[in-house]
Amino acid sequence: MKTLIIETANAKILGELVTVSRLFGQAPDVVVLGSGELQGSYGKAYRLSDTLGANLGSSLSDLIKRERYELILLSTTAIGSGLAGPLAVSLGAPILSEVTAISPDLTIERSLYGSKAVARYKLESGPLVLTIKRKYFEAATLEGTTATEELPVGPQKITLLEEIEEERTGIPLEDAEVVVTGGRGIGSGDNFSILKEIAGMLNGAVGASRGAVDEGWMPPGAQIGQTGKIVAPTVYFAVGVSGASQHLAGISNAKCVIAINKDNEANIFKRARFGIVGDYKKAVPALINALKENA
């Protein structure tokens, strides 16, 4: 199936899209958006210097029609999600968003209702636009780099006035192998210090549930869940987290969940491999001491 990937030069996101493209058999072509070296090998590689979806629709639509691509892959980033809908409309093509799995017979899956249900689809004919949910597909290793052919950008309907990058310190949540998340059960913003201490000892990152963010205890950029960041760490500590379905949707690919909560009926225990029913103010220091003793 002739496939086109549309994404920025972010190697991890590109790697996930390359993995998906390989399921459909043919080496993909790519349109890289913005600046940056394009890692990996592709059939054909194009570049659009703009990243604003409203300015790219006509250029991408013309390319897809001319080259007769059957499958268009984007990621569920702000850029990918913003491009996918208008692109599908201009192509008269169906769109499936937030794809989470593709089986060997090319049945496509996406989650519904906060991951409480799964819908399955079968592609009969292209073109089809898919947005791929982050962290659900292992990123392919991209070897080497590929030169790109510049494509003309369409009419400049929107001008970017300013872009403010999110300030980050430490390991990004999306890349951390260990994530320690606090929920409303933590009790206050100051109490996140103990979570930061154990996260630091484990070379991990600190996240927060939506409840903790709504309380102003942690910044919105730390929120994990359906409306926050999607993470897939090897170990996920959920401390004082109730386990709402929206939160679980953001950790569905976490390999080992360890829950600490005083409420033995908290929903998070249904997702956890290991659980501690008790006060985190006793449990977490005990874990910290154990780590120090074994350091």
UniProtKB/TrEMBL annotation:
<dbReference type="InterPro" id="IPR014730">
    <property type="entry name" value="ETF_a/b_N"/>
</dbReference>
<keyword id="KW-0547">Nucleotide-binding</keyword>
<feature type="binding site">
    <location>
        <begin position="240"/>
        <end position="247"/>
    </location>
    <ligand>
        <name>FAD</name>
    </ligand>
</feature>
<feature type="binding site">
    <location>
        <position position="280"/>
    </location>
    <ligand>
        <name>FAD</name>
    </ligand>
</feature>
<feature type="binding site">
    <location>
        <position position="279"/>
    </location>
    <ligand>
        <name>FAD</name>
    </ligand>
</feature>
<comment type="similarity">
    <text>Belongs to the ETF alpha-subunit/FixB family.</text>
</comment>
<dbReference type="GO" id="GO:0050660">
    <property type="term" value="F:flavin adenine dinucleotide binding"/>
</dbReference>
<dbReference type="InterPro" id="IPR014731">
    <property type="entry name" value="ETF_asu_C"/>
</dbReference>
<keyword id="KW-0285">Flavoprotein</keyword>
<feature type="binding site">
    <location>
        <position position="210"/>
    </location>
    <ligand>
        <name>FAD</name>
    </ligand>
</feature>
<dbReference type="InterPro" id="IPR001308">
    <property type="entry name" value="ETF_a/FixB"/>
</dbReference>
<dbReference type="Pfam" id="PF01012">
    <property type="entry name" value="ETF"/>
</dbReference>
<feature type="binding site">
    <location>
        <position position="224"/>
    </location>
    <ligand>
        <name>FAD</name>
    </ligand>
</feature>
<feature type="binding site">
    <location>
        <position position="184"/>
    </location>
    <ligand>
        <name>FAD</name>
    </ligand>
</feature>
<feature type="binding site">
    <location>
        <begin position="209"/>
        <end position="210"/>
    </location>
    <ligand>
        <name>FAD</name>
    </ligand>
</feature>
<feature type="binding site">
    <location>
        <position position="223"/>
    </location>
    <ligand>
        <name>FAD</name>
    </ligand>
</feature>
<feature type="binding site">
    <location>
        <position position="242"/>
    </location>
    <ligand>
        <name>FAD</name>
    </ligand>
</feature>
<feature type="binding site">
    <location>
        <position position="261"/>
    </location>
    <ligand>
        <name>FAD</name>
    </ligand>
</feature>
<dbReference type="GO" id="GO:0009055">
    <property type="term" value="F:electron transfer activity"/>
</dbReference>
<dbReference type="Pfam" id="PF00766">
    <property type="entry name" value="ETF_alpha"/>
</dbReference>
<feature type="binding site">
    <location>
        <position position="247"/>
    </location>
    <ligand>
        <name>FAD</name>
    </ligand>
</feature>
<keyword id="KW-0813">Transport</keyword>
<dbReference type="GO" id="GO:0033539">
    <property type="term" value="P:fatty acid beta-oxidation using acyl-CoA dehydrogenase"/>
</dbReference>
<keyword id="KW-0249">Electron transport</keyword>
<feature type="domain" description="Electron transfer flavoprotein alpha/beta-subunit N-terminal">
    <location>
        <begin position="2"/>
        <end position="168"/>
    </location>
</feature>
<keyword id="KW-0274">FAD</keyword>
<dbReference type="InterPro" id="IPR029035">
    <property type="entry name" value="DHS-like_NAD/FAD-binding_dom"/>
</dbReference>
<dbReference type="InterPro" id="IPR014729">
    <property type="entry name" value="Rossmann-like_a/b/a_fold"/>
</dbReference>
<feature type="binding site">
    <location>
        <position position="227"/>
    </location>
    <ligand>
        <name>FAD</name>
    </ligand>
</feature>
<protein>
    <submittedName>
        <fullName>Electron transfer flavoprotein, alpha subunit</fullName>
    </submittedName>
</protein>
<feature type="binding site">
    <location>
        <position position="209"/>
    </location>
    <ligand>
        <name>FAD</name>
    </ligand>
</feature>
<feature type="binding site">
    <location>
        <begin position="223"/>
        <end position="227"/>
    </location>
    <ligand>
        <name>FAD</name>
    </ligand>
</feature>
